[in-house]
Amino acid sequence: MKKLLLAFAIGTASLVGFTGCTKEYITNYLPGISYVAEVNPQNWSRTGNEFATTINMPELDEKYFQDGHVDISISFDSKPEVYENIPSEIGNYKYSANYGVGKVNIYAVYIGSGAPVAPEGSLVKIVLTDADNGDQ
Predict the structure, then answer these.
(1) Distances, alpha carbon 76 to alpha carbons 27, 28, 36, 40, in Å
(2) β-pairing, 122-129 with 69-76?
(3) pTM for the complete prediction?
(4) How far apart are CA 35 and CA 42, in angstroms?
(5) What does the DSSP assignment read for 37-60?
(6) Where do the domains of the chain lie?
(7) Whole-angstrom distance, CA of residue 124 vs CA of residue 108
(8) Chain segment 102-124, per-residue pLDDT in tens
(9) Distances from the Cα of 17 to the Cαs of 5, 14, 84, 103, 119, in angstroms?
(10) Which of 20, 35, 67, 124 has the most C-beta neighbours closer than 10 Å?
(11) What letter does residue 113 receive in the DSSP assignment?
(12) Nearest Cα to 74, choosing from 42, 22, 115, 119?
């Protein structure tokens, strides 16, 4: 009987002690936002076998530049159902990109045979994602 009472007392004390706790949920909602820009063949400038184009992106501010993430992909007019991530080798080109505050630069190095021609028309998707600075 004493063991039963002792178990009951411990159970009651545990129940009273744990019911005072509240669950705390921490939610860091860091949404991404995407933009799509049209790039036509005449938008590319050429230097040797390299083509380059710049997309003005005022939304890419100092905060995104320092702490966020920028993802760039491209969808060609001949294959609109697919976006290809950059950097990538696609068809006759090696694509790469870089960015700074207010702009995204895309490069296409022609690796095909024959005279270089500008890449076909495309849509460029730029995704800006917020992130917390882990250094602070």
Answers:
(1) 37, 35, 12, 10
(2) antiparallel
(3) 0.76
(4) 21
(5) EEE-GGG-EEETTEEEEEEE-TTS
(6) 32-129
(7) 13
(8) 999 999 999 999 999 999 999 99
(9) 18, 5, 56, 57, 68
(10) 124
(11) S
(12) 119
How are beta strands 88-90 and 93-100 bridged, if at all?
A: antiparallel
- Work out the burial of residue 45: count CB atoms within 10 Å of its CB; fewer than 13 is exposed, 13-18 middle, 19 or more buried: exposed
The pLDDT of residue 12 is 60
Stated as kind and residue range, the H or E segment containing 35 is strand 32-39
pLDDT at 33: 92
Q: Say yes or no to pLDDT of 26 above 70.
A: no
Q: Which residue type does 5 have?
A: L
Query: Buried b vs exposed e over 108-127: b needs ≥16 C-beta within 10 Å?
Result: bbbeeeeebebbeebebbbe
Please give the share of the chain, as a percent, with pLDDT higher than 70.
78
